[in-house]
Specification:
- The chain is 29% helix and 32% strand.
- The chain is an alpha+beta fold.
- The chain has one domain: Alpha-Beta Plaits (2-Layer Sandwich).
- Strands 2-3-1-4 form a 4-stranded antiparallel sheet, covered by helices on one side.
- The radius of gyration is 14 Å and the shape is globular.
- The two termini are 17 Å apart.
- 17% of the residues are buried.
């Protein structure tokens, strides 16, 4: 199943701190490995008023996905609040 992960910069962190932190390395090895394996199928940064990231990720269960993202260094270090939502193709399972 596919899941949409939305990470939003925590209120106590600033955009400037985030930019300085990721300046030389936009994604951790843990995240890149999941991209290489095809587990993460889409990814990007939220650049608007609420900076952060989005990821579309394959997973067996919502709990398994939540466990996986807790291993992302910047999530583990408390930079982002995250939400995980299951998604399906447009109109396939909407009831």
């Amino acid at each position: 199943m596919k899941y949409l992960i939305s990470g939003t910069l925590r209120p106590e962190k600033t955009r400037e701190e985030l930019v300085a932190k990721i300046k030389d390395k936009l994604m951790s090895e843990e995240v890149w490995e999941l991209v290489r394996k095809g587990v993460i199928t889409e990814h990007g940064y939220k650049i608007g008023r609420r900076p952060g990231f989005i990821i579309v990720m394959e997973g067996d269960t919502e709990e398994a996905v939540k466990d996986a993202i807790t291993n992302f260094p910047m999530v583990r270090e408390g930079w982002f609040d995250t939400e995980v939502d299951p998604i399906s193709p447009f109109f396939s399972d909407i009831r």
